[in-house]
């Protein structure tokens, strides 16, 4: 009987510890996913930011024939206005995409912080 009680007492703390370890492993996997998503989001942000920067720095007359091209006809006024409008729309779309990616990145960072706090709490429980 004493042996049985002793075995039960030895097994109980380990089962609690094993459950803690299982939760920690699950949280660490979720943390890795959140970090990978944040990294991918950051890379997308940088690419779109560069596209937007190039579009902003580009001349509004870019894509029009130069003065040295004698055989290329000068574009019509409507075509120039359409190109300017398309450029403006691209810049607006890039800006909206950047705002969306920034919001997503912030949400992932908050999720990552929450997961890290949960992991820290679980790691401290066995020590108490």
Please describe what this structure looks like:
This protein has 128 residues and is an all-alpha fold. Helix content is 81%, strand content 0%. It contains 2 helices and no strands. The protein has helices spanning 2-57, 77-124. Helix 1 (2-57) runs antiparallel to helix 2 (77-124). The longest helix has 56 residues, at 2-57. It is rod-shaped, with a radius of gyration of 29 Å.
Give a topology summary:
Elements: H1 2-57, H2 77-124
Briefly characterize the structure:
By secondary structure, this protein is mainly alpha-helical. The chain has helices spanning 2-57, 77-124.
Element order: H for helix, E for strand: HH
Low-confidence stretches: 1-12
Please state the overall shape, judged from the principal axes of the Cα atoms.
Answer: rod-shaped
Number of strands: 0
Counting helices, strands and paired strands, the structural category is mainly alpha
Largest sheet: none
Share of β-strand residues: under 5%
- Report how far the terminal alpha carbons are from each other: 29 Å
Kindly report the average pLDDT value: 82
What attributes does this structure have?
single chain; 128 residues; mainly alpha; 2 helices; 81% helix; rod-shaped
